[in-house]
Amino acid sequence: MMAALSASDNGAEVILIEKNEKLGKKVYITGKGRCNVTNNSDVENLLLHVITNPKFLYSAFYTFDSYMMMELLEKEGLRLKTERGNRVFPESDKSSDVIKTLREALKRRGVEILYDTTVSDVETEDGHFKAVTVLKENKQKKVIEGDAVIIATGGLSYPTTGSTGDGYRFAEDTGHQVKECHPSLVPMNIKEEFVKEMQGLSLRNVNYTLKNGKKVLYDEQGEMLFTHFGISGPLVLTSSCYCAGKDVSKMKISIDLKPALSKEQLDERILRDFSECKNSFFKNSLGKLLPAKMVPVIVKLSGIDAEKKVNEITKEERAKLVELLKNFELTPAGFRSYNEAIITKGGVSVKDINPATMESKKMAGIYFAGEVIDLDATTGGYNLQIAWSTGYLAGMSAALL
Fold first, then answer.
1. What phi and psi values does residue 149 have, to the nearest 5 degrees?
2. Computed from CA positions of residues 161, 384, 181, 219, in that sequence, does the dihedral angle turn out positive or negative?
3. 240, 266, 289, 396: which has the highest count of C-beta atoms within 10 A?
4. DSSP secondary structure letter of residue 362
5. pLDDT, tens digit, 9 for 90 and up, residues 47-102
């Protein structure tokens, strides 16, 4: 959509080929249906949050940054708001309003949109391109010609939205290298069975550390969620960026459940709680300290008899409890599938693309934009901004070809 807008604004006649029955299916589900459209911050901050190939994005980000994206949407009639972490959302909290705004903008510019149309092949002849299309309704084939073609097909994540890897095939067929792909910004499976007992429990203000042996891959404070298979939530999704495609068998997750308290302060807090219920059983003494769903799990893992009176618990046992709360360990067992991944890590190699134009270095007239390229970032609107920026630059460059 952004590539089509940009190309049209720069004087090109544009045909947008959409395999779905409507535009923006992937946009529709982002931000839990609210669409975290970008991050309200400068280019340096955007680059800091890009995990793979940030230097490649200098031209794209400086050509069309998040401020320009916000200005474009507001000019086209969409009211925006900025929330915690500089995340930008439509004021209505409806991702459908973002799609509607872009669709109407395309309509005003006279961009032709072919819905329910799949591109089966991209061919080249005498410097012109042919997109061989198949209409969903009657399987009718049609060839569409152009002076340039922009491949903006997305990756492999959420295949129900149409992201089925078509762009990788087009890239390989035209001589481009495609870096191995993996699900990213994705929940994790956990080996320990006790996580199932905490299904649905959301933790806030915990410190989450992911280690590979002694090497710290990710360390951050924030929110996470326990599920029937393992863990999810902002901390978990972001940590997956740093280890997607890697062997997780030697990795460990450590959660500090009380990062605001030192071990000594936490011990004092536990003693205080114990003193208020001297004759209670241990299993009934942690209600003020921990969420109800977590208490049975912590009691079991602490090694302290659940039926033991709190005034009988030894200093050594208390020290073990403190250690457990400050270092609650989980063992990753792998990642969930592309069906649950927000983005795809990997894609068309940046070595085959000119960063100043998004044009292929292998074949003049072919441009790439968005998730199909080997680029990815953390959560917070950064991945969508990569899409907007690369799309804008690709559209502009193709129009000025």
1. -135, 135
2. negative
3. 240
4. S
5. 999 999 999 999 999 999 999 999 999 999 999 999 999 999 999 999 999 999 99
